[in-house]
Amino acid sequence: MEMLVVVSDLSYRYPDGTAALNGVSFAVAAGERVALLGPTGSGKSTLLQHLNGLLPATAGSVAIAGITVVPSTLRDVRRRVGLVFQDPNDQLFLPTLLEDVAFAPLNDGVPAHEAAHLARETLAELGLAGVEHRAAHHLSGGERRLAALATVLVSRPAVLVLDEPTGDLDARSRRRLVGLLLRREETLLVATHDLGIAESLCRRGVVLHEGRVVADAALGDLLVDRALLERYGLAAPLE
User: Fold this and answer.
1) Cα–Cα distance between 87 and 132 in angstroms, integer?
2) How many CA atoms lie within 13 Å of 89's alpha carbon, on the beta-carbon side?
């Protein structure tokens, strides 16, 4: 079985010396859907930012499709890993959605007319056809989430990485986003403290606590382990 993501003994300290990750190790197979679980401050977002080299490891390593993430491989790695940040505004910064979504292809050297075509095509895939020339601040919260996702999917990454993808969405927008993600074929990593969303999208869960992996198991097994959930600050989905 091909391991598309391999995290090996990964540690990271912030410049002030605070330890955020402590010897994290796990691997994700091609096509697998994995939930990274843990409360705020457990290290989830920090871990995600190592998957495409936004943060450099203090120790240990990350490999994507056999490519170790180091400064000289960042372009190749970032073509393979699409990271959608927790706040859509971090990815939507240009005057129109079309420009936001076309930005990555243009940056990779795709001609302008082809980049615009890819952007329109990707927006249409996500149900955003017809709003290409609107600014992000004129969209609903759910539409902004989808637009941020489009800025990543336009490059057709092998690995899709989502940081708290439903944190500020209403129930209708959550269902729409979950339905869309279930139709995707990319390898998926979702960082969340929402076990209901994790259960909807993933079959495996990796639990982080204070920067360490404390559990890695089938999600169904984790959800029935009430002692583990309580110990690590996770609320089981409502029955």
Assistant:
1) 20
2) 5
The closest alpha carbon to 27, from 70, 57, 61, 76, belongs to 61
Report CA-CA distances (Å) from 215 to 36, 43, 220.
Answer: 10, 14, 13
Domain residues for the domain of 195 are: 3-231
**Domains held by the chain: number:** 1
Show pLDDT as tens, one digit a residue, over the chain (239 residues). Answer: 679 999 999 999 999 988 999 999 999 999 999 999 998 889 999 999 999 999 999 999 999 999 999 999 999 999 999 999 988 888 999 999 999 999 999 998 999 999 999 999 999 988 888 888 998 888 888 888 899 999 999 999 999 999 988 877 788 888 888 888 998 889 999 998 888 889 999 999 999 999 999 999 999 999 999 999 999 988 776 55
Instruction: Give the pairing type, strands 187-192 and 19-29.
Output: unpaired
Assess if residue 55 is contained within a domain.
yes
- Pairwise CA distance, residues 225 & 31, whole Å: 26
**Number of other residues whose CB lies within 10 A of the CB of residue 221:** 12
How many alpha carbons lie under 13 Å from residue 5 in its C-beta half-sphere? 30
